[in-house]
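S., here's the first fold you wanted:
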Amino acid sequence: MIDSSIMNLMMELATFSFIVPLVLIIVWKLRTRKSLIPVFIGAGIFFVFAYVLEAIPHTFFLRINSPVSTFLTGNPWAYALYGGIMAALFEETGRYIAFRIFLKNHAERETAVSYGLGHGGIECIIVLGLGHLQNYTYCQLINNG
């Protein structure tokens, strides 16, 4: 049986993970009166590059049974290095494409902050918010037998 205080904390963290990025984006919009296009581009680029495109090498290097996947999953240092390199490669490439192609007409400081709020906001929602909701659901299933 999982204690209700732990489950309540999971739900509070999930709620917090959804609300904080949205509040920050709203406050930033009201303060700067700039377009929200960079926010949406940041969120979209993060999703496409970190979740869609980055999954391709993970399939080959981690999920297919091979000597490379055995080495990476069996060695924490190699796994961490691989994860860092893949994240850097895909997220920085996405950031470069976003600013070079989609945001070339938005050459202001506020654009970088807006892009970061979109990128970090969707990451917070997906990783923390949805992760805690999933764990909360599992706790409910465990408690209900």
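And the second, which I think is the more interesting of the pair:
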Amino acid sequence: MIEKYNKTLRLFSTDRNGGVSHPPYQSLNLSYGVNDIAQAVTENRKLLKTRLKIQTLLSAKQVHGDSIFITDQNVIKDIEVENFDALMTDIPGIGLMIQQADCQA
């Protein structure tokens, strides 16, 4: 199925290198759900957007449920939606980010 979208779909995984967060969250912490400075997380997310060449980053505050957030044209700025565990879009330029573990930081 992914082959059908190979010109428009990009998958990525990050490590913790290349960001601005200070210990113990160093350096590329992308989670607002820990005690890192929010400005550092925002800057780290900007760095990620630049590296991925995306305009908007949509993330989810996951709850271990089965709700899916489907984006529309109204998503024009970076947001983190609450109470969703999956994200979908058909709009080019929007990055969808989910965490792979609640203990990401």
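Why I say that: The chain has one helix and five strands. The chain has a mean pLDDT of 86.

Talk tomorrow,
H.
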